[in-house]
Amino acid sequence: MSVMILGLVIFLGVHSVRIVADDWRRAQIARVGELAWKGGYSLVSLVGLALAIWGFGQMRLDPAVVWFPPLGLRHAVALLMLPAMILLVAAYVPGNAIRARLGHPMLLAVKLWAFAHLLANGRLGDIVFFGAFLAWAIVAFAAARRRDRAAGLAAPASRLPATLVTLAIGLVAYYLFAMHLHGWIIGVPAIAMG
Hints:
Layout: H1 2-14, H2 17-20, H3 22-32, H4 34-61, H5 73-90, H6 97-102, H7 105-120, H8 124-151, H9 160-186
Transmembrane segments: 40-59, 71-93, 127-144, 164-186
Protein name: NnrU protein
Pfam family, one: NnrU
């Protein structure tokens, strides 16, 4: 589990620079340039994510069980992942009402994803992994909203077609991931059939 924790510290640490040291971040971007900053940021993030995922997989080989979630909570996960997937898509489709209304839908998607997976997984490694993402997303969302208020940002304009596209892509992505990709990538079917 130590590799997973190291990966989480690196990945979430890099993603927390704007929360805890935004002035330093801006100074570094001014010093090295935005492209170099994004390149280094991406590289360190990728290393952290790879370590966290590999460590998570290793943890699953010899898990320490803290609690046994009721089987019915899997249905709650399936239900919560639908809006999480739509929120994830909303972060990338310009002009949708979801993003305009809620602000920072990616962070909201991470919150829902992590919370949902905490409900249905009782291994210590799962609790650390998903709990770390949930705690980070809560703090990051609050910090992002504070930055928005301090900057006086108003909600961007939204268009119905962009919102409908967001919903459609989110539903298709949910279907593909829940019915096909989750089992293939993670090794555990998201929705058990039969």
